[in-house]
Design a protein that fits this description.
The chain is globular, with a radius of gyration of 33 Å. The relative contact order is 0.09. Helix 3 packs parallel to helix 5, helix 14 packs parallel to helix 20 and helix 18 packs across helix 19. The strands form two sheets. It has a seven-stranded mixed sheet with strand order 3-2-4-5-1-6-7, sandwiched between helices. It is built from 21 helices and twelve strands. It is an alpha/beta fold and 659 residues long.
């Protein structure tokens, strides 16, 4: 059961109100859906009823599994109790279930006890559950005993199920009206500092929450940090909320209700196409190339094909770089210059520096995101639990905003002080790594190795692990105790990108640490991640091995997180463009467009005089007189910038000298 959102929802509505279609829309993106049909077949001669049932069956995707409980209404509680956390159960509807329950064939029976069993099964169900039920309480009291028995039993069932569900929605003329949103107790209101984020906010009312969600359906949320114009071709729309409320704004990710985004272990997010990737790699073997092919870069084609759902993937056009800026206090930041990370972030915002230049050359937009600073992990938790929830939601919304803007690839990097030590602590907690084995050497500004600072970082991570030795190793607990704001936001970005089917190019320890944490929240997230280069960083190597991400290159680049990935991006784009454009080899059935005979004119057989051949003149030419028929190559003009030549004997820019 979810505490801050919904895990079970009851969809009420009248006849032909659109309640079933709305319920189906809530589970559209769920990877595993079990559809529970409760309605009896009815009279074989009732063609209108048969048509209704056929319409319901036609709307179900082929990937859904269907179960029927018409033979035994008590079986519905068993189905819910046995559902797995990775499943979504759609029950349509309780009206048919009550009809079967009241059928004389199932009497005598304790209807009240059966309804109570159903409500208890809903409360204890590990899966996400959506139940549909007709609302008949607004009509007149039936005049027949059977009609009154049905309305009474259905009303009792609706009340019991509504009490057991996290959320209840009433669909009127196709318009959903949320009757029971779950109000969160605390909501942080500003991402500026840890103190400000800890301040609770008043929970919104149902009407206020519904109005906010309705307004966000037309205008996407805009983060506090705007994209720099120098690097962004399509700047985002104006903010729709107060500047300090970006972290607390609702989100419109699916599955979604007005109660807010639910981020919890065992989330059901989409997976890449399991067939398109292998098909794309097999297709590479048929292309008309003179050599053996793309080598290890065929993994790029397979990854792009799986995430795009096609065997001929296209090169990523719209790319956005998310640079997370958040410092870690204490020993984690030993050896770093105070204010250096803030300078790098400001440099990127201004369109200067390596990252900004590479982004501009790649045509990628650059977004710098400020995350809350983390406390010294050796002494206290890095973040409060409320801050972790806000950071996860904020990262999810960043991915949503990118998807709404048409971004096809996200590049994730960080520039905070102490990020390497925080990532090492996360790896130690999630993969059992030893801190010295995953902490890279500390390099000073002058290029020297600072072993003293490295030992301070190791000690900070060691003390943090000792302090939390009895703490839970859940995803959110690790983020609160060890990860900090940048790792939490990065985790939210991975989850949001997975929900919107946007691939992520990881670069650096923070992104890999977020990938480790996201395994407990949604194991599908790692399948949407790609690692271009490990950069020689031990933490990246270990996390990539655990996540099953094989680096495509071994360049050992160290230009800063994000910049390393942008160096490899043109190569990856070229590979995708080449694989999509090359034809199939002629020996395998492809057309041969290079046959020179096809371009030669047809020979003519008219009476033409025989050609005459003049003997070549083999006499030596006079070296003192210029030959007007032979060009003389002068010195080429310099290609780069330089002083202009003004001499009288200057040759034309083409390099030719007149005879």
């Amino acid at each position: 059961m979810s505490v801050d959102g919904w895990n079970t929802v009851l969809v009420l509505g009248g006849i032909r109100s659109g309640k079933s279609e709305f319920a189906e829309s809530l589970v559209t993106d769920a990877p595993v859906v079990r559809y529970v049909a409760t309605a009896p077949e009815g009279d074989p001669e009732d063609t209108e009823w048969a048509t209704r049932l056929a319409a319901h069956r036609a709307r179900r995707p082929g990937s859904w599994t269907t179960e029927e409980t018409t033979e035994d209404p008590r079986r519905l509680a068993d189905v819910l109790s046995s559902a797995e956390p990775n499943e979504t159960v759609l029950v349509d509807d309780l009206g048919g279930w009550v009809t079967v329950l009241l059928d004389p064939d199932h009497q005598p029976a304790d209807d009240v006890a059966t309804i109570a069993e159903l409500a208890e099964a809903i409360r204890g169900c590990a899966a996400r559950v959506v139940l549909v039920s007709p609302e008949v309480g607004l009509s007149l009291v039936p005049t027949t005993p059977l009609g009154r028995a049905f309305t009474d039993a259905l009303g009792a069932a609706n009340r019991a199920v509504a009490d057991a569900c996290d959320a209840v929605v009433l669909v009127v003329a196709g318009q959903p009206v949320w009757l029971k949103p779950v109000a969160t107790a605390t909501e942080p209101t500003a991402p500026a500092t840890a103190t400000e984020l800890a301040a609770p906010a008043t929970a919104p009312t149902a009407a206020a929450t519904a109005s906010v969600v309705a307004s966000l359906a037309d205008t996407e949320p805009t983060p506090e940090v705007q994209l720099p114009d120098v690097l962004t071709h399509t700047p985002p729309a104006a903010p729709t909320q107060e500047p300090g409320n970006a972290w607390a704004a609702p989100t419109m990710a699916l599955p979604m209700v007005s109660t807010g985004l639910v981020i919890q272990p065992g989330m059901e997010l989409p997976m890449p196409d399991e067939y398109a990737g292998p098909q794309a790699v097999d297709r590479l073997a048929t292309l008309d190339v003179p050599g053996a092919g793309l080598g290890v870069l065929d993994r790029v084609v397979g990854f792009a094909a799986a995430t795009q759902g096609t065997s001929t993937p296209a090169a990523w056009g719209s790319v956005r770089v998310l640079l997370l800026h958040g410092d870690h206090a204490g020993g984690a930041s030993a050896g770093t210059v105070a204010g250096e990370s803030a300078r790098r972030a400001a440099q990127a915002r201004a369109g200067r520096g390596a990252l900004a230049r590479l982004a501009a050359e790649s045509g990628a937009s650059l977004q710098v995101v400020d995350t809350p600073a983390a406390a010294p992990i050796e002494d206290e938790p890095a973040l409060a639990p409320e801050q972790v929830e806000s950071a996860l939601r904020y990262g999810w919304r960043l991915a949503e905003q990118a998807a709404d803007a048409g971004v096809q690839l996200l590049v994730l990097g960080a520039c905070g002080a102490g990020t390497e030590a925080a990532a090492a602590a996360v790896l130690a907690a999630t993969a059992g790594a030893e801190p010295p084995a995953v902490l890279g050497r500390v390099i000073t500004e002058s290029g020297e190795i600072d072993d003293a600072a490295w030992m301070v970082r190791c000690a900070a991570v060691r003390d943090a692990l000792h302090r939390t030795r009895r703490s839970s190793r859940g995803a959110k607990d690790i983020l609160a105790e060890l990860g900090g704001g940048d790792v939490a936001v990065a985790t939210g970005v991975l989850l949001g990108a997975t929900a919107r089917r946007v691939p992520v190019l990881l670069d650096g320890p923070v992104g890999l640490a977020a990938g480790m944490v996201s395994r407990d929240l949604a194991g599908q997230a790692r399948h949407w991640c790609l690692l271009a280069d490990h950069g020689g960083h031990p933490a990246v190597r270990l996390a990539a091995d655990v996540l099953g991400l094989t680096p495509l290159l071994d360049l050992r680049l160290d230009l800063g997180e994000g910049a390393n990935a942008l160096v490899a991006l043109p190569l990856l784009r070229s590979v995708l463009a080449l694989s999509a454009a090359l034809p199939v080899h002629p020996s395998l059935g492809g057309a041969d467009d290079t046959d020179p005979a096809a371009d030669e004119p047809e020979p003519t057989y008219a009476d033409e005089p025989e050609p005459t051949y003049a003997a070549p003149d083999l006499t030596e030419p006079d070296s003192t007189e210029p030959d007007s028929t032979e060009p003389d190559f002068g010195e080429p003009e310099p290609a780069g910038p330089g002083p202009a030549s003004t001499g009288a004997d200057e040759q034309p820019a083409s390099g030719w000298r007149a005879g």
